[in-house]
Amino acid sequence: MGLFDPDMSTFVLFVNGPPYGREDAYTALRFAEAALAAGHEVRQIFFYQEGVLNASRLLSPAADEFDIAAAWQRLHHQGVPLVSCVSASLRRGVIDAEAAEDAEHDSTNLAACFTLGGLGEFVTAAAEVDRVVQFG
Amino acid sequence: MTQLTVVFRQVPHGNASGREALDLVLLSASYEVDTAVCFIDEGVYQLVKGQSPKIIASKDHIATFGALPLYEVDKVFICEESLQERGLSPDDLVIKAKTLPRVQIHRQIQQSKQVLTF
Amino acid sequence: MTTTLTTLTAACATPAQLAHHLRHLPPGAPLLLLQDAVVMATQPRFETILARFDAYLLLPDVEARGLVSRIQKGLKTVDYYGFVELTLQTQNQIAW
Q1: What is the predicted ipTM?
Q2: pTM of this prediction?
Q3: Would you call B28 and A123 a contact, using CB atoms and an 8 Å cutoff?
């Protein structure tokens, strides 16, 4: 950090596909991993439309099937912020403590490595990066 | 150079792409990002007058297209051929906006720093 | 002059449909087929239309679908690193 690398580019990924049932989220995941491995920065992965379902803490694939939640968690631990659009998430039943309180739900289901954020978070990040890539 | 172009390509209400695309457009403009909007192919149906989304419990985001000028989104482009192919004319639409040939719509898209399709 | 990377994720049923879908795209435009769209690049009937563009296939998607031996001649394959590179060689991406 701090050294200007002319070969390093910055990305924001825009993910509209769900965690299971469509390939878009998986493609985004592999793209992000490749970008990081190639020395680029993934400034943010923003989840919108059905993509917000990736932010659920309750994803429970069979033991012999791909665990996309764990993969997103690995990306998070590599420093990639995972932001799920708050309004799109609430409409689709992905909620955090604050939203649960407002809606008087008795539980929450936001995965620990995701945050709920407004579209403004995407817009701000997108304005700063070299490329925005859309999946789904 | 336009910073963000949002492309509406789908019929409204069968999915929420139009509603969620419009939310993004208005938010982007409110953050003073130079934002353009294109309606192409089935996306022109987003703008048809006289819709009643409530009948199918869909949010009426159509009325909100009228807010584009208030948010200073003045780059709004509607594809001419897309209207013609569907027997629609500019008079059938809820907004007054520039109609452009498809080729010019795509030029606008190509020259935008970022593009999102819905 | 900016170049756009057009990405396709769905298969068209016929070459005519693909031609229609891409009728706006200038000759030589960069085109990446991924996910289900890769099947088009394994069929001779799509060869003419795909040859108009600078077409790439995402190889893992072809391998997943058991179609590597059927990739039409002259089509370039990339992995996810190549996909990243393509987005940097072009000015913007459109998911079409």
Answers
A1: 0.97
A2: 0.97
A3: yes
Examine residue C18 and state whether it is found in any structural domain, yes or no: no
Range of the domain at B26: 2-117
Tell me the per-residue pLDDT of A16-60, one tens digit each, with 9 for 90 and over.
999 999 999 999 999 999 999 999 999 999 999 999 999 999 999
Could you tell me which chain C residue has the CA closest to the CA of A28? Answer: C80
CA–CA min distance A51, chain B (Å): 12
Measured in degrees and rounded to the nearest 5, phi and psi for residue A115 equal -120, 155
Q: Is A85 a catalytic residue?
A: yes
Subunits with 3+ C-beta pairs closer than 8 A to C: A, B
Contact with chain A for residue C81, Cβ under 8 A: yes
Helix, strand, coil % over all residues of chain A, rounded to 5: 40, 20, 40
Residue C96 placed within a domain: no
Cβ pair C60, A29 in contact under 8 A: no
CATH number at residue B44: 3.40.1260.10
Nearest CA among A77, A72, A88, A73 for reference residue A28: A72
Residue C83 inside a domain? The answer is yes
